């Protein structure tokens, strides 16, 4: 039967039948600690790429390639550290069908049980009472990546052909700035990616916990570090305290000049670059289904800086934010170690929005920190630098791809999805749009309380399974559009 006439209910039923197999596939993926920011775990990131190759091969994908991206650029501890490969694969090459590129990432954020996880982060735990899968990468982004594979498996089981030619691009450095991917996309635009009609990404989340969304905007992310260096080695604070200049004291002062405790960025010139809010845009936020209570539930606290839905959404989606992430080299364990750290590296990032210019922002940040360090009159050495950046992206959601995704969502969830923007970043999105000259759709699988990047990251089984149905249903509706 032609794919145009296939009854989608059968596909949705087959996804349900394959549920145990799909859960097992995600469990195997979570078991590989593919943390891209931890240089010592780089072999695991590469192992995850090979796991994907094995799965893709078994499912009958063709033209599977591992694209080498060379050595990771500085700043990096190991000057010879290789970047993990990009996994490329196709399913089908029928010239009569549309070509959909699906992107996802197989790397994850760091996770340690002692951070406060209830279970081992890299051993998937299926809470059967609540039907939730816990584990690092469950929602970000191994669940959605497995989702695309699961769609193909369900078609294979039914003996159906896919309604589109699928082109997969899975990377292993998304959580660390997608290093090397811009260049690869540009290089492959007229080769591996030639003829791509649409890019679809499942790597973000619903706004809340009950209503599906389709996403048409992302903030960007510029990530910086401030290095302050003093003594030749860590020192005893009883012997050297009060006698030498302490790097931590300088660093804490510097970091406190970046943002205030109400979230206001204190670096001159940043807010001047933000696009003014129009009345039309202001009204868009009224229709979105969200509440302060949902934010509190997802955050696990009542510590919101804003007391109404509109302000929360604006500050998540269309205003920049600056977050202080941590201090490398500082004492951070339990107990009361009396040490003076010799070298400390403060990490912070700025989520960017239209019309912030990335290079201009870097200059403002560097000038600000340099000026503040001069005020300290310190004898320590200091440096501030960009680690990586990724662009923001906002698109027009009124196209056939969003319509197809909306139809599939209505089939599966019985509700018309909200159209949202997202506070997080997926650095490669704008590059795909520009280099391939096509539309991008963000089609999320997980819920707003999944705890991506946090402890106890999870993916609800209904989201995983219905998410697979939505991804597959979307391909069918898009093929027919
Ligand atoms: N699911 C998308 C995601 O988590 N993206 C990361 C990307 C990033 C940017 N810099 C470091 N990581 C995010 O933090 O938004
Ligand atoms: Zn992600
Ligand atoms: Zn992430």
UniProtKB/TrEMBL annotation:
Positions bound to Mn(2+) 2: 105, 140, 203
Cofactors, names only: Mn(2+)
InterPro entries, alphabetized: CNDP/DUG1 (IPR017153), Cyt/Met_Dipeptidase (IPR051458), Peptidase_M20 (IPR002933), Peptidase_M20_dimer (IPR011650)
Domain of life: Eukaryota
GO function terms (MF aspect): carboxypeptidase activity; identical protein binding; metal ion binding; metallodipeptidase activity; omega peptidase activity
Residues annotated as binding substrate: 203, 236, 338, 351, 425, 453
Co-factor binding details: Binds 2 manganese ions per subunit.
Annotated site (Important for catalytic activity): 236
Residues reported to bind Mn(2+) 1: 140, 175, 453
UniProt keyword terms in alphabetical order: Carboxypeptidase, Dipeptidase, Hydrolase, Manganese, Metal-binding, Metalloprotease, Phosphoprotein, Protease
Annotated protein name in UniProt: Cys-Gly metallodipeptidase DUG1
């Amino acid at each position: 039967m032609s794919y145009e006439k296939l009854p989608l209910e059968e596909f949705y039923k087959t996804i349900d039948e394959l549920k145990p197999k799909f859960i097992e596939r995600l469990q195997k993926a979570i078991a590989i600690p593919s943390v891209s920011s931890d240089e010592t775990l780089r072999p695991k990131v590469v192992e995850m790429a090979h796991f994907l190759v094995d799965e893709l091969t078994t499912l009958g994908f063709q033209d599977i390639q591992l694209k080498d991206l060379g050595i990771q650029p500085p700043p990096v501890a190991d000057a010879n550290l290789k970047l993990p490969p990009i996994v490329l694969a196709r399913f089908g090459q029928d010239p009569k069908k549309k070509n959909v590129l699906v992107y996802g990432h197989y790397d994850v954020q760091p996770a340690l049980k002692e951070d406060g996880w209830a279970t081992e982060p890299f051993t998937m735990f299926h809470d059967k009472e609540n039907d939730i899968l816990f584990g690092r990468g469950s929602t970000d982004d191994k669940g959605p990546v497995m989702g695309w594979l699961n769609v193909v498996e369900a078609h294979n089981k039914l003996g159906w052909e896919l309604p589109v030619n699928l082109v997969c691009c899975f990377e292993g450095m998304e959580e660390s700035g997608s290093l090397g991917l811009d260049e690869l996309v540009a290089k492959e635009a007229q080769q591996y990616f030639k003829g791509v009609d649409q890019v679809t990404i499942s790597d973000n989340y619903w706004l809340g916990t009950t209503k599906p969304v389709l996403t048409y905007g992302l903030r960007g992310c510029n990530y910086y570090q401030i290095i302050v260096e003093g003594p030749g080695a860590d020192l005893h604070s009883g012997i050297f305290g009060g006698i030498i200049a302490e790097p931590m004291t300088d660093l804490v002062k510097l970091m406190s000049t970046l943002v205030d405790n109400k979230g206001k960025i204190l670096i001159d010139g940043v807010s001047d670059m933000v696009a003014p809010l129009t009345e039309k845009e202001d009204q868009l936020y009224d229709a979105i289904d969200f509440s302060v209570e949902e934010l509190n539930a997802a955050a696990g606290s009542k510590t919101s800086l804003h007391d109404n839905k509109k302000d929360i959404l604006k500050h998540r989606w269309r205003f920049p934010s600056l977050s202080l992430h941590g201090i490398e080299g500082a004492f951070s364990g339990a107990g009361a170690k009396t040490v003076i750290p010799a070298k400390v590296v403060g990490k912070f990032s700025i989520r960017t929005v239209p019309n912030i210019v990335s290079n201009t922002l870097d200059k403002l940040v560097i000038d600000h920190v340099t000026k503040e360090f001069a005020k300290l009159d310190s004898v320590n050495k200091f440096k501030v630098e960009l680690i990586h950046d990724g662009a923001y992206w906002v698109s027009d959601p009124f196209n056939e791809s969003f319509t197809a995704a909306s139809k599939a969502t209505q089939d599966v969830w019985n509700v018309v999805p909200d159209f949202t923007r997202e506070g997080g970043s997926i650095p490669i999105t704008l590059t795909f749009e520009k280099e391939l000259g096509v539309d991008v759709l963000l089609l999320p699988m997980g819920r707003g309380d999944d705890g991506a990047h946090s402890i106890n990251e999870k993916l609800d089984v209904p989201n995983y399974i219905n998410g697979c149905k939505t991804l597959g249903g979307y391909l069918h509706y898009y093929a027919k559009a």
